[in-house]
Amino acid sequence: MMRTRIRPRTRLLGVAVAGVLAALTLAGGTATGAGNKALVGITVDTLPIANALPLDLGIKKGFFAQQGIEITKRTLQSGNDVVLALANRNGEIGYLGWVPMMIASTQGIQISAVAPSEVEGTSVADNWQNILVKGDSSIRTPADLAGKTIAVNALKGVGEVMIKAALRKVGVNPGSVRLLALPFPAMRAALRNGQVDAIWTPEPFLSQALNLDGARIVMAPGPVLGKFWPIGGYASLSDWARQNPALAKKFRTAVDRSLSYAQAHPDEIRALLPAGTGNVRLPIWSPVIDRAKLRQLARYAQDFGVISKQPNFAQLVPRSITGGKTLQGTLTVSRTARLLVDGKTVKTLPEGEYTFVVSDRSRTASFRLRGPGVNKRTPLKGIGRSTWTLSLRPGRYTYSGGGVKHTFRVV
Fold first, then answer.
1. Counted domains in the chain
2. pTM of the entire structure?
3. Other Cβ atoms closer than 10 A to 356
4. CA-based R_g, the chain, Å
5. Which of 169, 199, 339, 344 reaches 20 to 30 Å from 26, CA-CA?
6. Strands 284-285 and 118-119
7. What's phi and psi for 185, nearest 5 deg?
8. Would 298 be classed as within a structural domain?
């Protein structure tokens, strides 16, 4: 059957999708099904970045084949490329950032999210996409960035939105900085030779700049805007999603399982990375999306001229996408447990899906969460990050770290 070619009304602006790994060649190919059952083919336009690796892991683990889906991957170079490919019917689903999706939505390309993907961290210590300066730079704080030149990989994209919004939030005039578009691989050299004063860069360039060049982090824009700030997801043209609701749901089920599995098995994700880049900071993958933060991101994008109007959120993020919050749990060395939502102690939550990101720093206790249908704990002797996506039902929940128990209610 001949496919109709749809041309976008205007050319999309170049858009950055965080975490580009220039040296990364993702595994291509398709999934194989069990037995003789025929699989439905879906072509996914994706990006050569570590953030997209749960798709590869899900293919490898057979999560898509179990849903009756065979994935064919097409690796493109930018979110702009992915949107244009979808608009021209070159692929059914694309992996890209929320800002490119918003640009598409406001420029006449009807696009809808099919599944979420990743979020940023909570501080400069755990975030994978930050603003760096040379080790001997006089720039010590975000305020010192005023009047300076910062490299981003594209103008009028996610980097510009997040940097300017974060600067404004900490009291720095966002118009006082100059942004220079440079490819991520060229940023380290530009910083070393003084072409720019700072760079906004993801992994693996962030770790390379820190460990090889002696660079310093002066700001993590995502965590400044909010804990677990949303970055990317999977989308299709809206008419494809309407015409294939069952298939879209099966794809989302496989992606959600892939995200949860990747988060729980980081070593298997690192094994997919090229040699020498396996120790980079990984994003937090979550099958829930914080709609309030997405709306705030859209307001920032409009404030700084990246989009001219607000996107149609009912179309862009349909109710089939699981809404929810990402909660921050910690267990200190002294076995003090805390659980925060948007930086505040959890007291009451509405019934629904939540992703818990727990940083366990104790070698003698576990962070434990119990309540209706839930009994989760971090490893007793290990330290590190554990992530659980859970469905919370009405009732009383407790969390503790071997000492005082804390309570919150789900209503």
1. 3
2. 0.84
3. 22
4. 21
5. 199
6. antiparallel
7. -65, -20
8. yes
Domain that holds residue 374: 325-410
**Is residue 261 domain-shared with residue 312, that is, in the same domain?**
yes
Residues in the chain: 411
Q: How is residue 71 written in tokens?
A: 């994935």
Contacts of 351 (CB under 8 A, 6+ apart): 392, 393, 394, 410, 411
Of 164, 197, 225, the position where a domain reaches its end is: 225
407 closest CA partner among 324, 348, 361, 335: 348
Output the six-digit token pair for 219.
């700001």
Contacts of 262 (CB under 8 A, 6+ apart): 53, 54, 57, 58, 268, 269, 285
Neighbours of 171 (CB within 10 A): 8
Residue with tokens 């975490």: 19
Tokens 């993590």 locate to 220
Rounded Cα–Cα distance for residues 302 and 309 (Å):
6
Asked if residue 24 is part of any domain, the answer here is: no
378, 358 contact by CB (below 8 A): yes
CA distance 164 to 385: 30
| Alpha-carbon dihedral 268, 273, 276, 281, rounded to 10 degrees | -70
Pairwise CA distance, residues 64 & 58, whole Å: 7
* Contact partners, residue 312, CB within 8 Å, separation at least 6: 105
φ/ψ of 336, rounded to 5, equals -90, 125
Angle at which helix 79-87 crosses helix 98-106, to 10 degrees, equals 40
Q: How does pLDDT run along the chain (411 residues), one tens digit per residue? A: 333 333 333 334 333 333 334 334 334 444 444 454 789 999 999 988 788 999 999 999 999 999 999 999 998 877 888 999 999 999 999 999 899 999 999 999 999 999 999 999 999 989 999 999 999 999 999 999 999 999 998 888 888 999 999 999 999 999 999 999 988 889 999 999 999 999 999 888 898 899 999 999 999 999 999 999 999 999 999 999 999 999 999 999 999 999 999 988 999 999 988 777 778 888 999 999 999 999 999 999 999 999 999 999 999 999 889 889 999 999 999 899 999 999 899 999 999 999 999 999 998 899 999 999 999 999 887 678 899 999 999 999 999 997 789 999 999
SS3 content of the chain, % helix, strand, coil (to 5): 30, 30, 40
What CA–CA distance (Å, rounded) separates 154 from 79? 11
Same domain, yes or no, for 76 and 61? yes
Pairing of strands 149-152, 178-181: parallel
